[in-house]
């Protein structure tokens, strides 16, 4: 899959690591030196998303004071990762379908036809077949995107992957933070494997980041992890004032960051 230009659709719950999979595909391809560009389709308005994807010419709209390149142009022969693809409007669905079918596009307000060689990897945490039934997603676009389909189960259903994920995330987090925390006692690893991780890989990464920051030496301990188990209550049984909650929280933060 990595060494082709085949479009890929990655499906899975929020935080399951869809972008990680997309990056793995890109950086193991023959086009690894080309750009890997991420666009969150749910975080940008329809008008701005069209300009982000295709670029615009000067004067195309009120604030278009100069011409810009779109992500299809910038991506070159690389990968365009379209996250939350189920949130794009019917208008943009039509335009995206045309790009996939013809490999050409025009900038917003432009007349020149441009070519793209970028591979599209789309991702979603929604049930796209349900969106098709509701008339919110074009069926032809769906099938054009899912030439290869990858479904990522939630982390709680693939506990055997957690040790390898922890090793990868440890390397990544240490590099980003300039730290050298390398050791995980067997008991802590067992705990990591057995936690439910409702936020999936994203929650695991956040937990490990916190643990590495708070670690005193090169080993993370259970006390460094932000655990929320049945034995550990966030709130006490008795009701207390907001001021008392703030006081206790400040004391907790000071203790953890000594």
From TrEMBL:
Pfam families: AAA_lid_14, Sigma54_activat. Transmembrane segments: none annotated. Keywords: ATP-binding, Nucleotide-binding. InterPro entries: AAA+_ATPase, AAA_lid_NorR, P-loop_NTPase, Sigma_54_int, Sigma_54_int_dom_ATP-bd_1. One of its GO terms (molecular function) is ATP binding. Residues 1-213 form the Sigma-54 factor interaction domain. SMART domains: AAA (SM00382). PROSITE patterns: SIGMA54_INTERACT_1, SIGMA54_INTERACT_4. One of its GO terms (biological process) is regulation of DNA-templated transcription. The keyword Nuclease does not apply. The keyword Nucleotide-binding applies. PANTHER family: ALGINATE BIOSYNTHESIS TRANSCRIPTIONAL REGULATORY PROTEIN ALGB (PTHR32071:SF113), TRANSCRIPTIONAL REGULATORY PROTEIN (PTHR32071). This is Sigma-54 factor interaction domain-containing protein. It comes from marine sediment metagenome. The lineage of its organism: unclassified sequences, metagenomes, ecological metagenomes.
